[in-house]
Amino acid sequence: TEQRKKEKNKKMNFLRSKDIQNLIDEFLLKYSLEKEHTLVGYDTANLDSLSPRRVRNMLVVSSLYDLYMLEEDGGLVEGLSLENSPLSQAVAPPRLIHATNVSDALEMIEDPSSSFDSADVAPFDLVICFLRVQENHHNLFDFIQRVNVAAPRLPVLLLATDMKQLKTLDPRVDESCRVNVEKTRAWEANKQGIWSWPFLWQGDFSLIHAMIKTVEDRLNMRHDAQIADVNAIVLVEDNVSYYSSFLPIIYKEIFTLTSNYLSEQHNLALKLRGLRSRLKILLATTHEEALEFFNSFPDNIVGLVSDIGFPREGRHDELAGLHLAKYVREKYPNIPIVMQSAQQQNQSKVETELENVTFINKHD
Questions:
Q1: 39 Cβ partners below 8 Å, 6+ apart?
Q2: pTM of the predicted protein model
Q3: Of the four, 44, 58, 203, 263, which is 20 to 30 A from 99 by CA?
């Protein structure tokens, strides 16, 4: 466990750079100044209705050993809460139910009353599969398909412990840990309507919290933009390892800084409304998915963080991020843009073709 954490910290130092911290501050400051009226200018009933689709009941499918490992690495229950947030005591974490195999999990999904002791029975809002390849890979995708039949559009997140397992668990992921566009097309042709995202466990228990918030932000963006003009950052990254490391850090900053921006004069109810109207993160793994966010929410996107190479027009494009950034800069000239790449030579391309764009080397 300690060795894995050391390797992860060495590899992901770029995420803790001042550029990233300043970027988040810039996004949040812009958001805070423009959205100060959110707490006072909107109907209270509308604010209370923000983020209606929250993860309240979560099913974790894993072996007892893997559940123990999650606890050993940092505490699964702690990972469900708002770390370092003064509002953590007022926001109830999701109720967690555990299944040790896919058969029990399916029974719980099809009949939620079998999962809860109380009379307050509600369907699951999220399923996280943390399964070892040798135990479950033969029936994992049959399980996902059956979940989609029993509970259409129920998000199923796949959580692997290493890259080899990730590639085996999710056929969309290739040898470089990227969501491969050709493999994704084949997947979607056979499994239409299934919502499944891969993630990579790297010893940081706050990943669970980030996974939940990523799902909630996607589910609630349209509703919250209409109700309270809530804003978002678009994150474009097809490397599962990188977004699994980046999301916990950026969410932690957003929750901490949002809490700090809320005036001490506001009472708890107003602070909670402000937290619900916080900046959202919209994760995209392709050029088209990112464009869809900008086209769907043209007045609500306040920043772009993008990789350089990712799928575009049905194939992997090493310069897709430049195409996206040029489009965004032309259409939204004031939006802050950060380009990330593991290839240092891309910095000159970014600086030559774009103005006022921050470049970050992922391996610095």
A1: 47, 262, 266, 270, 273, 274, 277
A2: 0.85
A3: 203
